Amino acid sequence: MRRAVGVVYLNLHSFLFFHVLSLCLGYSPPGKPKLTSCRSPEKETFTCWWEPGSDGGLPTTYALYYRKENSDAVYECPDYHTAGENSCFFNKNDTSIWVNYNITVVATNALGSNFSDPVDVDVVYIVQPHTPENVTVTVMEDKDGPFLRVSWEPPRKADTRSGWITLIYELRVKLEGEEEWEEHRAGQQKMFNIFSLRSGGMYLVQVRCKPDHGFWSEWSSTTYIKVPDYFPRETSVWILIAVFSAFIFFILTWILNLKSNSVKHCLLPPVPGPKIKGFDKQLLKNGRSEEVFSALVVPGFPPTTSSDCEDLLVEYLEVYTPEEQELILEEGKDLQEGCLKSKGSPSDSDSGRGSCDSHTLLMEKCGEGEGKEEKHQERAQKGKRQQKHQTGWEEGDVSHTREDVLSPDMSEGRVKTWPSVFSPLPQYSSRPLDHQGSLETARQLCLSDSLFPPPSTSSHLSYNAKEGLALGSGQQEFYLGKKQTHPSNPQSQPRWHLQAHSDFNISSMDRKQAASGLQLPGFRSTEYVEVQRVNQEDMVILQPLFSSSCQRDGHLQIGQGEDYSKVKGVDSGNMLLLQREVEVKREEEDGDRYSCDIQDRVTESCYTTSTAASSQVTGKPTSCAGTAMPVQEEMVLAANGYVDAATMLL
Amino acid sequence: MFSLPVWVAVLALVYLDFPIRVGTAAICAHGQECHAPSLADLFDRVIQQSSRVHGISSELHSDYEQYFFPSKNHIGKRKCHTYSILTPADKENAQRLGREELTEVILRLLGAWGDPLSQLHRSMTQDQNQDFNHYSSNKALEMSDMVHELRSGVTKVAEKMKLLGVISNALGYMSSPESLAPSSVSSSYERGDFNSIDHHDLLYCFRRDSNKVKNYLRILKCTTLPELDC
Predict the structure, then answer these.
(1) What average pLDDT does the structure give for chain A?
(2) Principal localization (chain B) (predicted)?
């Protein structure tokens, strides 16, 4: 008895010792396991998994026990391995549908065991099938475009054919690179169509299934499908719209192009260009700056007394013949237009046509082609005068008078030639040489014009003169050209232009031309030209010298003497070389009226013009020397342009 | 005497109401050749109906579980009153059973649940938890009606199958469906005092049985007409 008690006591002790020792060492009974899930893939078998609790540091075993509904028999899991670790697999024989299973897991280790919470399972409600199989996606063609046909098969184990299990399917599609899937319920059918595809896109398709009461399967493995390139129907509509819009756009552009000018005027009003007198674009482009600037210099501005005289003289282009009067009037107008300033000179008291009238009238009354020789720059341009002469002669030009000493009176068809009084032109030192030369040459030309009045010759002369004048600066050309465009008043207008021409830039005169101009054969009549004055610009203003035989009938008997009306040429010193001629013959025009007063003021024939202070009398044979100085001094440049007591303005 | 709109309204009501009441009879009126629904159509209708019944029963059961029984260990000792009806518990057994027996089982199940569902509905409407029961009693009523319709539908299917020679005429239970209900069940139901726990048990049992019915019908269909959706 004692031994039994002792043994029991010993066992108890050892047991307790063992437990205490285990506890001291940190061991413990196993933790409570937990049944995580039970699943049946085809409603014929099912598997339960559990989660073991802590093992307490000791090796722990797990056991699953179950009880069926309405039965008290406890069974243990038939298969712990088929489904893996911590699982229990119930095969077909052990599986009953519509029967409630009460399942418990027990964890056991050396120190004890632990029961899990029981779980009731009805297999019919835990069905989770496998993924659908044989997912195939094909591209099919339709009238609207291609579409995808997805087809699949139920999972192999699920017996849908006998109707034992009914599955509904779901598929999802997305484009490669996108994040959002597009899901579609397919019901019980095993085929599905997807429309509205992107041309050339790569699509991903997945399918899954679920029994009518159960859990969704996993998504099947992705199936890739590439949609071929096609032309969507909506794009064709857009293309039509685009083409139409382009067409409209082109039409509008064309219309705009047609009306571009008006549109431009509307949107961008043209900037008014410079309207500067004397501004020549061509000169600006081609010429030098000095030429440009000199072109801008307007003669007679700011007006001075001398220029007044010139201007006034300009107005003296009046002719008192009936036709001439018309011309006078015309020219008078022109004169007034061109006259920058018409100041009344002391000697001028005329009002009607300007202060220059009186002398002009006087001159005209002489009927001779005597005119005051004015050395306007414009006048000096013989060529212009030539033009005037030409047409004016035809018309019975009259006026070209006092300004143009050299301009002959013209009756119809007849050309009057002025007696030319030549005086060697003084050099203009203050001037640029070219100016002088040009001026002189022009004068030469003018003079010669008077010598050779015939229209033909005059035309020729004028042409030559024009040429000569035209040489050099383009500005001159410009003016010449202008003058030619006034057929109505060729005389006046050239004159005007001459006057307005502040700078007479015949830099390089062709002397030959001038000479040729001078030497035109034909009628010769000489005029006496006296230097009326020299204006500010060192222009020698010549006036015809009238002998006392100024007659009304137009015959102007030229005083004997030397005829210096012929301009031989312009020398390098910008001196107008006058040629002495013996014969003086002058033609007159009827109706020319020249002021006989001029004769009174006739001075000696020989005059020279000089620039600035130096009055040089060149020792040229053709030029009259010696008398230049006193003559010059005697010259008075009246406002009207008459040189009475000539004092050369140098 | 009545104005035109009134006549129009009356006529509209009449014509609208007519098809609803007449139903399929209008199609076969006046001696027209009337096509009775095919077996496939019948099966589809029946299966749809059974599916709907099962859905409602599941909803009701889950409602009860949410509201009244958070713990799910209640089920333990329940015994459904239809446990006496032997039903195949797996696929092999079901396939082994044959069409006639399967049909019989279905009909038995449906017959066994006619009265209990009516009583359930009555009991629910009388329950103290008005909020819940008001919503659930409607479902119970609908469920009860549908079970009745389903039973008549399955009967028609059986007749059709007999007509087609699919099943033999050796079915005796069809004549007396009332005898199918186990006596124990009817006795317990006659007590008439159901409580919420009883409701829950009842719903649990019915949910399962409706699932059985649906499943058996599908098996029947796929066995009889294998080409359709099986």
Answers:
(1) 65
(2) secreted
Interface TM-score (ipTM) > 0.85: no
Q: pLDDT tens string for chain B (230 positions)? A: 667 878 877 787 766 655 555 445 445 666 666 777 888 889 999 999 999 999 999 998 888 888 766 555 555 566 788 888 889 998 899 988 888 889 999 999 999 999 888 888 888 877 666 666 677 788 889 999 999 999 999 999 998 888 888 777 765 555 444 444 444 455 555 555 566 667 788 888 999 999 999 999 999 999 888 876 77
How far apart, in whole angstroms, are the C-alpha atoms of residue A487 and residue A377? 21
Chain B closest-CA separation from residue A96 CA (Å): 5
Question: Is residue A285 pLDDT above 90, yes or no?
Answer: no
Per the omega criterion (within 30 degrees of 0), is the bond before A302 cis? yes
d(C-alpha B87, C-alpha B98), whole Å: 12
Interface residue B84 vs chain A (CB under 8 A): no
Under 8 Å CB pairs connecting chains A and B tally to 59
Task: Tell which phi-psi region holds residue A426, choosing left (phi > 0), alpha (psi between -120 and 50) or beta.
Answer: beta
Cβ count within 10 A of residue B116? 24
Secondary-structure breakdown of chain B: helix, strand, coil percentages, each rounded to the nearest 5: 75, 0, 25
Amino acid identity of A384? K
Q: Per the domain annotation, does A447 fall within a domain?
A: no
User: Which chain B residue shows the shortest CA-CA distance from A97?
Assistant: B89
> B52: burial class by Cβ within 10 Å (0-12, 13-18, 19+)?
middle
Torsion of CA B198, B199, B205, B209, to 10 degrees: 150
From chain B, the residues in CB contact with A122 under 8 A are 208
Helix or strand (DSSP H, E) at A644: strand A643-646
**Any domain includes A584:** no
Q: What pLDDT score was predicted for residue A260?
A: 83
Whether the predicted pLDDT of A88 surpasses 60: yes
Q: The pTM is what?
A: 0.52
CA distances from A351 to A249, A292, A343, A640, B31 (A): 68, 36, 11, 13, 133
Query: Which residues have CB under 8 Å from B139's CB, separation 6+?
Result: B56, B59, B60
The beta-carbon neighbor of B89 closest among A96, A102, A161 is A96
Task: Identify whether residues A112 and A183 lie together within a single domain.
Answer: no
- Cα–Cα–Cα angle for A342, A348, A354, nearest 5°? 40
Q: Does B212 touch chain A (CB under 8 A)?
A: yes
First-to-final CA distance of chain A? 176
Question: Are residues A56 and A28 in contact, defined by beta-carbon separation less than 8 angstroms?
Answer: yes
Please tell me whether residues A140 and A216 are part of one structural domain: yes
Contacts A187 to B, Cβ<8 Å:
none
The total number of structural domains in chain A stands at 2
SS3 A171: strand
Domain end marker among A233, A257, A275: A233
Residue A244 belongs to what H/E stretch?
helix A233-258
Domains and CATH numbers, chain B: 6-224 (1.20.1250.10)
DSSP per-residue string spanning A28-92: -PPPPPEEEEEEBSSSS-EEEEEE----TTS--EEEEEEEETT---EEE-S-SSTT-TTEEEE-T
Tokens representing residue A26 in the block: 């940190």
Compare A513 and A359 and report the one with higher pLDDT: A359
What residues of chain A lie within 8 A of the CB of B80, using their CB? none
Is A166 a domain residue?
Answer: yes
Res A536: pLDDT? 62
The size of chain A, in residues, is: 650
DSSP string, A555-593: -EEPPSS-EEEEEEEE-TTS-EEEEEES-----B-TT--
What is the per-residue pLDDT for A24? 73
Residues belonging to chain B:
230
A162 vs B: CB within 8 A = yes
∠ at Cα A249 (A248, A254), nearest 5°?
100
In a domain, A540, yes or no: no
